[in-house]
Amino acid sequence: MAVEIRELECFLVLADELHFGRTAERLYLSQSRVSQLLQALERRIGGPLFERTSRRVALTPLGKEFLVSLRPAYVALERVVENAREHATHGKGRLRIGFQGVANDEILNAVAAFQSDHPNCLIETCELPLNDPFGALRRGTIDAAVVLVPVAEDDLVVGPVFSTHPQTLAVCTSHRLAGRTTIEAEELAGETLIGFKGPAPGYWRQAQAPTQTPGGALIHRGPEVQTFQEGLSLIAAGHGAMLVCQPTAAYHLRSGIVSIPLTGVPDSGLVLIWRRGEETPSLKAFAAGL
């Protein structure tokens, strides 16, 4: 049976006052209403909590045991409500944001802007494994994540688009396409693309390393890696190519590898996601600022 908060509050005040009249005054209730609430609670519990006579009110042994257990739990509940109120009115607390790849200027600027507007809320960032975009979010170690699209998970909410950028093809300098200024998607036919292994769903891994061109021609599935750095090492060794968005390609530019603009494929996008039903005031404020 569901316990009413008002019944518990009545019990705690009566345990302090040991007087029905003073309890009624503190709770702004009639004495008869205090009696009704107490009787309802005793029925739920299955035994008397107070000994009541015409001269005195005293806790029964059951009442004393119930009081010892209830008081700290009730205080904790009050603290939860108060913390929620503070979050709603002042944005206090902590917001943990995970991100895939590089914490570029767009991410850092969004974090800095939020921190400036909400000085009472500490925002923390951490890098997510490139092959596991959703794991940390589901484990509860972060509150939201900035991840590569697509995202089609029933338990996750897809928020605002964080940024979109054109795709490039990263290849070694000896690759047949290395000297090109642009590449059309159909020219990936017969190429080998490095993909990602791990817990990421198949549709997400397929988007990062497609096995067909838009026209249906075969693209070979190459080695699978867990991190971007592993992929770069394989590219430099001539074991395949990777789809990489322009900012990431520029940030990770290294000798032996070139990135060439790729047309005919969707842009690479980053979106903010969070667990369904767990949108806090701080998270709402952060999402609204993107």
TrEMBL record:
Entries under CDD domains matching the protein: PBP2_LTTR_aromatics_like (cd08414)
Pfam families reported in the protein's UniProt record: HTH_1, LysR_substrate
Chain ranges of the HTH lysR-type domain: 3-60
GO molecular function terms noted in the UniProt entry: DNA binding; DNA-binding transcription factor activity
Cellular component GO terms, alphabetical: protein-DNA complex
InterPro entries named among the record's database cross-references: LysR_HTH_N (IPR000847), LysR_subst-bd (IPR005119), WH-like_DNA-bd_sf (IPR036388), WH_DNA-bd_sf (IPR036390)
Keywords, ordered alphabetically: DNA-binding, Transcription, Transcription regulation
Similarity remark: Belongs to the LysR transcriptional regulatory family.
Name the record gives this protein: DNA-binding transcriptional LysR family regulator
Lineage: Bacteria, Bacillati, Actinomycetota, Actinomycetes, Propionibacteriales
